Amino acid sequence: MKNRRGVLMSNHSFLAASDTLSHFDIPGSKLAYPFTQFLPVTGASISTFGPLMGTETISATDEQARRVDELQFDLGEGPCWDALATRQPVLEANFATRTGASWPAFTDAIRAENVGALFAFPLVFGPLEIGAVDLYSIDPVTLTPGQQHEVLELSAMVSRSVLSHAIQTAGRTIDTSTFSRRLIHQATGMVLAQLGIAAADAYLIIKVRAFAENRSMQEVSEDIVARRIRFTEAVDHGEDIP
Fold it and tell me: 179-226 — its CATH code?
């Protein structure tokens, strides 16, 4: 009965975290907090880096979480970099006993920061690479497969939110002429077919591409329809997108 009660409480906490992140009006600075509601971690952070967006910690639950990001940015190595490069979670349950050869400088630095465990989950959206979610614990701790799956679900929601916030902040105008809307609709359908994603997500990818290249959505859509831009080719060849 006790274990069942614990599972029910954990499920409720995850649903509450999911509900919070489902609202696109949540401030970017608060995006990391829901992860601490249902996981056995001390703190969390959300950061952007890579070819698409600038390097920045956009949300951190505490100064230690922010420091974990800062060390990885300054040293150019660490779990967050590997998570984004591989598009897979990187799980370090106990830094005190870690023997891996990767990130030698970061490993030495983090052991002096009172961090026992660190988990990094990639922030990606279709072919777009955005950043990472970092979760740390003062003490060594593990995440169950179920918890890892839940973090990935929330990370997908954070990815959408981060992209939407970035576009809104940029304040770019969208051509709403009849021709433009038809062209963008056609390009959206092509991206949808290439990547096998929802129409809303395909539209957002076009919007982000335009934002990243400082172009209009119509211009990017023209290239997609003319097949000068093919997202599947870029993914297959490991190219950066945009």
Answer: 1.10.10.10
